[in-house]
Recover the amino acids of this structure.
């Protein structure tokens, strides 16, 4: 087996089974030896903010000398990014090794059930096996879609469960209302566990509280009032969180302060559980956190910010951050989204800020029609132009006339990864 074989198994659309239970996943993990039962996990679900919160918490744990595995998705440039130990991507050799162990068992499960496993299920199994083999002390698991029926939800009661946000995304799978989506994501709350979430809205927090009560789990809700003295710039954010003062993070945007606060609360919970985490390590971990593709500045002149906002809540937050960070700048937006998204609704959110909007399809088969989208934008009285490749967009953006502009690239993470790689 080589890395092409690995990618064909863990990063392609191959599943055919129903998604009404975790039977296939449990059967596969049983055949592997249930390595997940030996792992102490932090389980994170949410519409937005999972990756950033994982990155903040992982940085704190690594700073504390705790061997930490992280499983996240999607990736920007290479699938290895999804599986990390102590901030280092899994090597090709280790990826091949664990996949070679899992692959024949995948065949057995598929023969017994008559269903093909989804690639995310196989990838999750390989990651859990890898973390167990490498004897990770803690593992941060980011749910893929939802929570209740997500492949990651075959773990035992985690040390901490976290719900970062609730918004409209993957509605065909999770439900048509935010309350239904919240119930699916709160499915990661297990009996007698601990769950941390922000105060989102009365309706959503009511759903989470009800599930926590049913599971006899302890719920810790973080209020925005716990965050004070917040100063957000295009270089960093400084804030106090409860009794922790003068904290600094370098992930851009006000929303990252809440993600950092969720990570702080999880670290304090782990400290209470006996993990050796000090306030100095929390402070240093936050300041050392990086998370590519989320309000990330990849160029100074022109200023280029890339952000994987691809659902309404994410784009609304992007708009708020851009308006706050660049209030007087001439703004050029580059957008590329999948055609199954409500992309015009999201593009219309940012139009009042835009000098011009460039469109480019992030995928030749699943991406939106860049030309048709540009025409729709133009019909609303805004300047817009379609491009047929990321390379062509970059060529335009590097033209001298854009040197003083601030360029915001947002949408599909396929676009964000290509832009980061090619800029």
């Amino acid at each position: 087996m080589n890395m092409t074989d690995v990618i064909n198994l863990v990063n392609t659309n191959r599943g055919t089974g129903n998604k009404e239970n975790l039977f296939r996943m449990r059967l596969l993990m049983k055949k592997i030896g249930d390595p997940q039962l030996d792992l102490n996990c932090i389980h994170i679900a949410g519409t937005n903010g999972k990756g950033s919160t994982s990155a903040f918490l992982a940085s704190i744990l690594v700073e504390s000398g705790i061997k930490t595995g992280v499983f996240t998705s999607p990736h920007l440039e290479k699938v290895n990014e999804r599986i990390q130990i102590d901030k280092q991507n899994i090597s090709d050799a280790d990826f091949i090794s664990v996949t070679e162990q899992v692959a024949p068992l995948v065949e057995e499960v598929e023969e017994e059930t008559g269903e093909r496993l989804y690639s995310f299920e196989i990838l999750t199994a390989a990651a859990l096996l890898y973390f167990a083999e490498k004897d990770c002390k803690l593992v941060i698991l980011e749910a893929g879609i939802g929570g209740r029926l997500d492949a990651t939800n075959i773990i035992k009661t985690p040390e901490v469960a976290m719900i970062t946000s609730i918004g409209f995304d993957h509605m065909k799978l999770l439900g048509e209302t935010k309350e239904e989506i919240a119930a699916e994501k709160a499915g990661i709350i297990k009996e007698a566990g601990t769950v941390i979430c922000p105060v989102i809205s009365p309706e959503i927090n009511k759903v989470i509280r009800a599930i926590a009560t049913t599971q006899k789990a302890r719920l810790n809700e973080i209020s925005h009032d716990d965050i004070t003295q917040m100063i957000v710039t295009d270089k960093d954010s400084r804030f106090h969180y409860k009794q922790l003062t003068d904290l600094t993070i370098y992930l851009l945007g006000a929303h990252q302060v809440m993600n950092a606060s969720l990570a702080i609360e999880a670290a304090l919970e782990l400290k209470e559980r006996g993990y050796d985490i000090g306030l100095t390590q929390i402070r240093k971990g936050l300041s050392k956190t990086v998370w590519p593709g989320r309000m990330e500045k990849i160029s100074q002149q022109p200023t280029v910010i890339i952000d994987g906002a691809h659902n309404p809540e994410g784009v609304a937050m992007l708009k708020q951050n851009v308006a706050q960070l660049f209030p007087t700048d001439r703004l050029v937006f580059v957008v590329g989204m999948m055609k199954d998204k409500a992309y015009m609704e999201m593009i219309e959110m940012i139009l009042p800020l835009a000098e011009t909007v460039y469109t480019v399809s992030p995928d030749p088969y699943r991406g939106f029609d860049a030309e048709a989208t540009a025409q729709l934008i133009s019909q609303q009285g805004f300047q817009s132009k379609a491009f047929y490749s990321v390379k062509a967009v970059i060529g335009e953006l590097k033209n001298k006339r854009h040197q003083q502009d601030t360029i915001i690239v947002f949408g599909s993470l396929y676009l964000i990864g290509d832009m980061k790689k090619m800029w």
Observations:
- The chain has two domains: 3-287, 296-422.
- The two ends are 32 Å apart (CA to CA).
- The CA atoms of residues 302 and 399 lie 10 Å apart.
